[in-house]
Amino acid sequence: MRWWSLIAWLVLCFAVAAIGGRWTAPEIGGWYASLRRPTFSPPNWIFGPVWTLLYALMAVAAWQIWQAESSPARTLALAIFLIQLALNLGWSWIFFKQHAIGAAAAEVATLWMAIGATIVVFSRIAPLPAWLMVPYWAWVTFATLLNVAIWRLNRAL
């Protein structure tokens, strides 16, 4: 039973990845390629491997919290995790489908705060799941800076 719940968390996280990818992939060669990007913008090929690892780490972290004894703290932790996962998906829609770079910058800042909250509540239950979320938080910190820089460079578009 315990491994089935890990599979469920992996399916959930990678479903979010797949939906976001469907919104993102068609825009990479056209709209996104037309944007001015800062010098610290990584090559496009790096995003797939990084996000694959991050979604896997998120799923394992959530699964470990799921395995903890049922409590209001566990319920809150998983609720905040699901909120940040929804915000993660929302960013892809706002940035890539709506081309609303400024709104995406505000949304990713909200996502960043939600990930931080997830780490805090996870840490109250078990340290390892909280630590598994840290690379994701670091990447979203970078993504926030990248999003803001792209917005600043393309405000006139």
Describe the protein.
α2 (47-67) packs antiparallel against α5. This protein has a single domain (2-153), classed as Up-down Bundle (Ferritin), CATH 1.20.1260. The N and C termini lie far apart (52 Å). It is elongated. The chain is mainly α and 157 residues long. It is built from 5 helices and no strands.
Q: What is the CATH C level class, in words?
A: Mainly Alpha
Helical residues, percent = over 70%
From the 3D structure, determine the CATH topology. Ferritin
Q: Which stretches are poorly predicted, pLDDT < 50 over at least 5 residues?
A: none
CATH architecture: Up-down Bundle
How many H/I helical runs? 5
Q: By helix and strand content, what is the structural category? A: mainly alpha
Could you tell me how far the N terminus lies from the C terminus, measured between alpha carbons in angstroms?
52 Å
Strand proportion, as a percent range, falls in under 5%
The H-level CATH homologous superfamily, spelled out, is TspO/MBR protein
SSE series: HHHHH
The best one-word shape is elongated
* Radius of gyration from the alpha-carbon trace, in angstroms: 16 Å
Ordered list of secondary-structure elements with their pairings:
Layout: H1 2-34, H2 47-67, H3 72-97, H4 101-125, H5 127-153
Helix pairs in contact: 1-2, 1-3, 2-5, 3-4, 4-5
What structural keywords apply?
single chain; mainly alpha; Ferritin; 5 helices; 0% strand; elongated
Compact overview of the structure:
The protein is an all-alpha fold. The chain is 84% helix and 0% strand.
